[in-house]
Design goal:
heterodimer; A: 230 residues; mainly alpha; 0% strand; B: 493 residues; 77% helix; globular
């Protein structure tokens, strides 16, 4: 059996990795690496779920690790990377409202604020060990950092990645704060996949002229060829 | 069992749409689906077994109570009429090449799927399950907005998806809070609403405030509450009118429904004293921003869309008052608003077909000779406008009046502000109708505009809804009142 203290240390290191990946997603202009970093972030969550599993032994965590790996490390990044390749967008240099530096500073302030707010809210609840409390703080911070990406970037594909980061934050939060039934986690993944597919398909439309767009839809077999009239 | 029936009907509809080839066939499937669901809802209503326990439905995550049934009845009626309306409307869209023929299957498939998801959402006992269905309705309805052959539509759809989905994630965190609260109280966590409402009086105030505030963010975005309303006017104005009617009449209700459910839990705790004023402020701000946006508005569909924002604000204000009587009229207003708004969008859709060559979603409407060309749609807009501003003979009159009266007993300044804002919205609608509908083209250019031959299927829903509205506004049946009273009692107000 592995020493629980060691596992807790591992989880702390993974927290740091998650924050670094989020900071990278906020500040980078390179779209290709954005997807890889997202995959890395999801992989960190998988390891975190596994580490928690070895601490607590609930099978739900194992199941979460499996579906997170399948969907967020493999399927979704692959799908986005394929779309990116086809629409040939390499860089997203347009930022609304926030420049990367301001975003980074802002997210640091956010984390501090969440720490204080959560400490206040969770004061009365029993059994809040420091590790679990810390997980909740990191989870919500990740969510808000993702939100900043969603609203500060112009390209819809980067917005999608912001949304995915947010969702990772929710997963992290849910994992550390409580144990949600597995069915819920599973349905969220389904919802996520539909959302990602739809928005990326629409993105193809935004980033091209309309005629081009419909040609592309046909090429991807997303819309059937025009049929005969009634 | 009921769940199985719903899923079977949905699967059959989707399969039939997949093998259909023409607009007519697919449309017929959608009409049949809505009619079947309506039949199930009416059967449930008449059977008198409601609330139905999870056992009969077939899953522990679902239940049917009066509020769910009420929402399902409204939704299926609007879906049925919208499907009848869509037959002629979509044909027009295809003729003018605004909708590709290849997209038809996607359009009707999404339509049929949307209705199923909405039904499942209203029959969900588990709040997390409701959250997922609500989230799915956003994605599917965004698809219906984006389906038109225009870049602006894609823009509007993406804005809609991101604002609603991002906010909904906050709701989910709120639900995690709720789950954890229930776990700390009872030992075993649950998100089943029926259990939560029983445990609610034990919940700690601080956690409840945090949970409700987070849940509110998401459902407020879904129902177009300030400051998350920015997606609404664009999405509602750019969607095909049959879809606009659904967005306004049904989908906004999904958000408000979520707020009502969680507020009912909060209502059992002392947290309600903190949260009610908050709802009141958001309600007033929502009505205010809608009223000020309506005043300079020259585009009919955007005007109607902003009026939806206004009515969501009124619902929130009614909820904030938190008395049984106010809740009764909030529920009545949900129904009144849904039907009125659907009829307005149907009429606006006919005008859109008539003037589509000159009518872009941003431009000022160039409506001329409206009484000669489209008398029914013109009267539909006028009567619908009168109904939505709350004139007697129409149901909104009663709900607005009683919500205002109740508000007066809570806060007089709030009442005065709200009255002033409602006056502005009424003036905006009136000004629009008077300034646009009186335009007549010069005699020599009179024959340039060819009258759009409105199909019967597009006229009938408008007429049915107008009759229904007058009926609801003049006759109060005992059954209706007991039904709404039951909802209030089940929400433990």
């Amino acid at each position: 059996m592995i020493d629980p203290a060691f596992i807790q240390d591992v989880i702390r290191v993974l927290f740091a990795v998650v924050i670094v990946t989020a900071a990278y997603i906020i500040s980078t202009r390179n779209m290709i690496s954005l997807v890889s970093v997202y995959a890395l972030q999801s992989l960190t969550l998988v390891f975190m779920a596994l580490a928690l599993y070895s601490l607590e032994g609930t099978t739900v965590l194992l199941a979460i690790a499996c579906i997170t790996f399948a969907s967020k490390v493999l399927v979704i990044p692959y799908f986005i990377a394929t779309i990116q390749e086809r629409i040939r967008i390499k860089r997203d240099i347009e930022f609304h409202f926030l420049s990367p530096t301001t975003s980074l500073l802002l997210s640091m302030a956010l984390m501090l604020f969440i720490y204080i707010a959560l400490a206040h809210i969770m004061e009365g609840t029993p059994g809040r060990e420091s590790l679990f409390f810390f997980g909740a703080v990191i989870g919500i911070s990740l969510m808000l950092m993702g939100m900043m990406v969603t609203f500060s970037r112009k390209r819809a594909i980067t917005k999608v990645l912001g949304y995915l980061t947010m969702e990772n934050g929710v997963l992290l939060f849910g994992m550390f704060v409580t144990e949600l039934p597995f069915i819920i986690e599973f349905l969220i993944i389904i919802d996520l996949i539909i959302l990602v597919m739809l928005t990326t398909i629409l993105t193809v439309g935004l980033d091209s002229t309309l005629e081009d767009y419909h040609n592309r839809l046909h090429r991807f077999h997303l819309v059937e060829d025009t049929e005969e009239g009634p | 069992m009921i769940l199985l029936a719903i899923i079977l009907i949905a699967a059959a509809s989707l399969a039939l749409i997949a093998v259909s080839r023409t607009n007519r066939q697919m449309n017929t499937v959608c009409i049949a689906e809505a009619a079947l669901f309506l039949a199930i809802a009416v059967w449930l209503l008449l059977s008198g077994q409601v609330p139905i326990s999870s056992f009969v439905i077939g899953s522990q995550y679902f239940f049917i109570d009066h509020l769910g049934l009420f929402e399902v009845l409204i939704s299926t009626i609007i879906f049925l009429l919208a499907a009848i309306y869509a037959r002629g409307y979509v044909e027009g869209l295809i003729e003018t090449h605004e909708l590709g023929k290849g997209s038809l299957k996607l359009f009707y498939g999404a339509w049929a799927f949307l209705l199923t998801v909405i039904l499942l959402a209203f029959f969900s006992d588990n709040l997390a399950l409701f959250w997922i269905f609500a989230e799915l309705t956003t994605v599917i309805s965004a698809m219906l907005v984006a389906i038109l052959y225009a870049r602006d539509n894609i823009d509007a759809a993406i804005k809609y998806i991101f604002i609603a989905s991002v906010s909904m994630l906050f709701s989910f965190v709120g639900l995690v809070f709720l789950f954890e609260t229930s776990r700390s109280v009872s030992g075993e966590g649950t998100l089943n609403w029926t259990v939560l409402i029983q445990q609610a009086h034990l919940f700690p105030t601080g956690m409840m405030i945090a949970a409700f505030a987070l849940v509110f963010i998401g459902f407020a975005a879904k129902s177009g509450i300030f400051p998350f309303h920015t997606w609404l006017p664009e999405a509602h104005a750019r969607a095909p009118s049959a879809v606009s009617a659904i967005l306004s009449g049904v989908l906004l209700n999904v958000g408000i429904y979520g707020i009502i459910r969680v507020f009912a839990i909060v209502h059992q705790t002392p947290a309600v004293t903190t949260l009610s004023p908050l709802l009141l402020v958001f309600g007033l701000l929502t009505v205010g921003i809608a009223a000020l946006s309506m005043l300079p508005q020259k585009n009919l569909k955007k005007l109607i869309a902003f009026s939806s924002v206004e009515n969501m604000g009124i619902l929130l204000i009614g909820l904030a008052i938190a008395t049984p009587l106010a809740l009764f009229w909030v529920l009545f207003h949900i129904m009144a608003h849904a039907f009125t708004k659907a009829s307005l969008f149907f009429s606006a859709g006919i005008l859109h077909r008539q003037y589509h060559s000159t009518l872009s979603t941003d431009a000022v409407d160039d409506i001329r000779d409206v009484f000669r060309l489209q008398p029914l749609a013109a009267w539909g807009v006028i009567l619908g406008g009168l109904a939505i501003i709350g004139m007697p003979l129409f149901p909104v009159f009663f709900s607005k009046l009683f919500i205002l009266l109740q508000l007066g007993s809570v806060s007089l300044p709030a009442l005065i502000i709200l009255l002033f804002l409602l006056f502005i919205t009424a003036v905006s609608l009136g000004y629009y109708v008077i300034s646009t509908f009186t335009q007549v083209s010069r005699p020599e250019t009179r024959d340039d505009i060819v009258a759009y031959d409105t199909p019967l299927g597009m006229k009938v829903p408008v007429i049915i809804l107008l009759i229904l509205m007058v009926f609801l506004g003049t006759v109060f049946t005992v059954g209706e009142i007991t039904f709404l009273d039951r909802i209030v009692a089940e929400l433990m107000f």
